[in-house]
Write a structure and sequence with these properties.
Order of helices and strands: HHEEEEEEEEEHE
CATH architecture of the largest domain: Sandwich
Number of strands: 10
Number of helices: 3
CATH topology of the largest domain: Immunoglobulin-like
CATH superfamily of the largest domain: Carboxypeptidase-like, regulatory domain
Oligomer: single chain
Largest sheet: 4 strands, mixed
Number of domains: 3
Strand content: 35-45%
CATH class of the largest domain: Mainly Beta
Radius of gyration: 31 Å
Distance between the termini: 75 Å
Structural class: alpha+beta
Shape: elongated
């Protein structure tokens, strides 16, 4: 009997807390001042090399702790962004992140598209060198038939993104 009352009291407490939390969220969502002070950020994320829109790219406003993933068409929507200028970061696995300053106006939609690339697509020139082993050069000049054994090494020179 005692446990039943305790369980009922606890259940009632949880129900009241959940209703209070839901009421507070509803008040924030429907508050004219909260909606008036926020805007919407939309756009798309694409791969510069392939020109394809990217599904599953992450777009975030790090200072605010809000983010969204792009849909299957490469587009994103972030609602409830406070008015002002914010740094927005778009990222995708295997590509370099892109950062941009975006100004959001209260009650308006700000559009920012991102084109992501990576240093893998742009390489500097590299040099190929060869070496001979032993006395292969001397025996070739002497006129006696010799099998030349050559080894090759690839030596990249300053491979870096541009």
């Amino acid at each position: 009997m005692k446990h039943t009352h305790l369980l009922a009291a606890f259940s009632g407490f949880v129900a009241v807390m959940l209703m209070s939390a839901q009421a507070a969220q509803d008040a924030v969502r429907t508050s004219p001042s909260a909606n008036a002070a926020a805007g919407v950020l939309t756009g798309s994320v694409s791969n510069t090399a392939t020109r394809n829109l990217l599904e599953g790219a992450r777009v975030e406003v790090p200072a605010l702790g809000i983010a969204a993933l792009t849909d299957n068409t490469g587009r994103f929507v972030i609602t409830g962004v406070p008015a002002g200028t914010h740094e927005v970061v778009a990222s995708y696995i295997g590509l370099d992140p892109s950062r941009a300053q975006v100004t959001v106006t209260a009650g308006q939609r700000a559009v920012r598209d991102f084109d992501l690339s990576t240093g893998i697509y742009t390489l500097d020139a590299f040099k190929v060198t060869g070496e001979r082993e032993g006395d292969a050069a001397a025996s070739r000049h002497s006129g006696t038939p010799t099998t030349l054994r050559t080894s090759w090494r690839w030596i990249p020179s300053a491979i870096s993104p541009t």
